[in-house]
Design brief:
2 domains, SH3 type barrels, elongated, 2 helices, six-stranded mixed beta sheet, Elongation Factor Tu (Ef-tu), domain 3, 164 residues
């Protein structure tokens, strides 16, 4: 299987025939016929074939081969959807995959090391990077530099952002 990237999450179920609600976090090429993996401690690690994919109210409805009942779909809720890298639409300058952000070492513009990005939270307005006890908004006023090759991020904290 080709290199996989985290594309979003199964956020719910749809109907009674095993369809799931998928909330993508990246722009994707058409998914029908694509083989994906779902990461979830409640299900076996195996490939899933997307039989159908259609947009619905801001998310996608997926029908996966072998997922034929509401109970089958319920077991997939909360799973992360891993897709082949070539399924992700090309990024524009300044856009990054979540997998590229996780693990970056974060420094302030003053040279203070804050820790590594542990998680990227989707909030609707903007992403938030979880760095230890700090929540760093992914906005241009704060994130000054992302260097994937050097595995580092430089931020300029807003007033009070790093206070405890």
């Amino acid at each position: 299987m080709p290199e996989l990237v985290d594309a979003g999450a199964v956020t719910g179920i749809h109907g009674i025939i095993g369809e799931v609600r998928f909330t993508p976090e990246v722009d994707l090429h058409p998914l029908e016929g694509m083989e994906i993996r779902l990461t979830n401690s409640r299900i076996p690690d195996k490939p899933y074939l997307i039989e159908r994919a259609r947009p619905h109210k801001g998310y996608l409805i997926l029908k996966l081969k072998g997922c034929d009942t509401r109970n089958d779909a319920e077991a997939l809720r909360g799973s992360r959807v891993m897709v082949p890298l070539d399924a992700v639409a090309p990024l524009v300058e300044g856009e990054y995959l979540i997998d590229d952000i996780i693990g970056l070492k974060v420094y302030t513009v003053y040279g203070d090391f804050l820790g590594e990005v542990e998680e990227v939270m989707k909030t609707g307005a903007n992403d938030v990077y979880v760095v230890g006890k700090y929540l760093i908004p992914a906005i241009h006023d704060v994130v000054r530099e992302i260097d994937i090759e050097q595995h580092r991020m430089v931020i300029e904290p807003l007033d009070g952002m790093l206070e405890q």
